[in-house]
């Protein structure tokens, strides 16, 4: 890994901004626009045609049957099922704490204000089906929606020549997903956003995907809500001399193996640790099954920043705003309140990032590409909406008439003022 030292904090921040700057691909955007238009016009016919063109699968039925899921349950190793069920318990118990409550107050006689919290009616979950299948992502997307009270959860996933991944189907059953469709790519996003003969329109689409999926989600936003535009996976680690190089290197590679565009960043005040981690990454890469992918990520987006103080380390990491942040410092818990920007934080040398990916309970659908500066992990709140309400008695209205009309006329909206004044009589 490249070790960056003898640079000022401002120089490093400029480097980080350059690394996270986003550019769109005009060719992808053009293709996605055409796919969305075609799905809107032709519905299921288009979805089947795209399955043949992109996935090389001929489909009689888009919807996955209960019998297919029953067979998947029989095919999956019982140990995997037990692990998914344990993960589901932990995810439910964590996200149950996020439930938002309706509220109401009466600040004075004749006035009642409130907010009613209500679930979305229908949600679409996109589950990738390319180089790797992620049953854990099924749980992470669906369980918060279930807790929120969503009545109709629809899963879409690309069709596969040899059938859908059994563990993904088992996870869908554990999570209580209502229906599953064999549709992938931008066409799946279009189907969820606008509806087809088979696939109902949803209120929100969640879940990660490739550049076509991300571009399609951006294109349909406004027609439906989306969770976020997910980019390549990333990890940031804050570590001092108390950290073990083997642990740090392993955790950096745990994200680098996802994608050749993944980011792996270590910020430390120990030159000895920096060099040891760089060396250890090379050692561990030699035996990693996905070494080619991980090496590309490390060579292109792997950096070790050497700075002088822990305060500067934290300042820089807040500029990175990583998807996953590990704090491998002495007394790691002492630093949580200094973290402003991160998707999910892992405290101490034993809280390795894969715990969050699979089992512990916090969600692994997280903001990437520096967007943790302004967005958060997927949660129950993503599947609820808030409806405000207001009641006034006549006496309460009379008390406020002058202030409302003054403000309305200040903004040049005479109709607003008259709508209030007419109620005096």
Automatic annotation (TrEMBL):
Record Pfam families: Histidinol_dh
A GO molecular-function descriptor: zinc ion binding
Cofactor list: Zn(2+)
Cofactor info, note text: Binds 1 zinc ion per subunit.
Purpose: Catalyzes the sequential NAD-dependent oxidations of L-histidinol to L-histidinaldehyde and then to L-histidine.
Designated name of the protein: Histidinol dehydrogenase
Residues that bind NAD(+): 126, 187, 210
Family named by the database record: Belongs to the histidinol dehydrogenase family.
Pathway: Amino-acid biosynthesis; L-histidine biosynthesis; L-histidine from 5-phospho-alpha-D-ribose 1-diphosphate: step 9/9
Catalytic reaction annotation: L-histidinol + 2 NAD(+) + H2O = L-histidine + 2 NADH + 3 H(+)
């Amino acid at each position: 890994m490249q070790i960056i030292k003898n640079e000022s904090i401002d120089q490093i921040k400029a480097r980080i901004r350059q690394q996270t700057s986003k550019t769109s691909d005009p060719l992808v955007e053009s293709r996605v626009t055409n796919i969305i238009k075609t799905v809107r016009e032709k519905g299921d016919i288009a979805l089947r045609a795209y399955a043949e063109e992109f996935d090389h699968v001929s489909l009689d039925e888009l919807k996955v049957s209960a019998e297919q899921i029953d067979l998947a349950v029989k095919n999956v190793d019982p140990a995997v099922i037990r692990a998914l069920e344990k993960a589901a318990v932990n995810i439910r118990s964590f996200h149950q704490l996020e439930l938002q409550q309706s509220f109401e107050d009466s600040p004075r006689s004749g006035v009642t204000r409130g907010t009613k919290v209500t679930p979305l009616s229908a949600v679409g979950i996109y589950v990738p089906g390319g180089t790797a299948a992620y049953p854990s992502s099924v749980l992470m997307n669906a369980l918060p929606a279930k807790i929120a009270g969503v009545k109709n959860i629809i899963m879409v996933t690309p069709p596969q020549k040899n059938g859908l991944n059994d563990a993904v189907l088992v996870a869908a059953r554990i999570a209580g997903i209502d229906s599953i469709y064999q549709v992938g790519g931008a066409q799946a996003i279009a189907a969820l956003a606008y509806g087809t003969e088979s696939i109902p329109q949803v209120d929100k689409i969640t879940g990660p995907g490739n550049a076509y999926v991300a571009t399609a989600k951006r294109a349909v936003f406004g027609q439906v809500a989306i969770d976020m535009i997910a980019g390549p996976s990333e990890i940031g680690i804050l570590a001092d001399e108390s950290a073990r190089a083997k642990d740090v290197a392993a955790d950096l590679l745990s994200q680098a193996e996802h994608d050749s565009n993944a980011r792996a960043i270590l910020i430390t005040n120990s030159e000895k640790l920096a060099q040891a981690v760089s060396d250890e990454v090379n050692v561990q890469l030699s035996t990693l099954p996905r070494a080619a992918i991980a090496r590309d990520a490390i060579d292109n987006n792997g950096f070790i920043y050497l700075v002088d103080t822990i305060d500067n380390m934290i300042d820089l990491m807040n500029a990175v705003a990583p998807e996953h942040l590990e704090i491998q410092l002495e007394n790691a818990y002492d630093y949580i309140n200094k973290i402003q920007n991160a998707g999910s934080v892992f405290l101490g040398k034993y809280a390795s990032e894969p715990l969050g990916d699979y089992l512990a309970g916090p969600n692994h659908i997280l903001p990437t590409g520096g967007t943790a500066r302004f967005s958060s992990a997927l949660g129950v709140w993503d599947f609820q909406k808030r409806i405000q309400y207001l009641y006034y008695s006549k006496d309460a209205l009379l008390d406020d008439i002058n202030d409302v009309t003054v403000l309305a006329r200040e903004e040049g909206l005479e109709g607003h003022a008259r709508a209030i004044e007419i109620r005096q009589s």
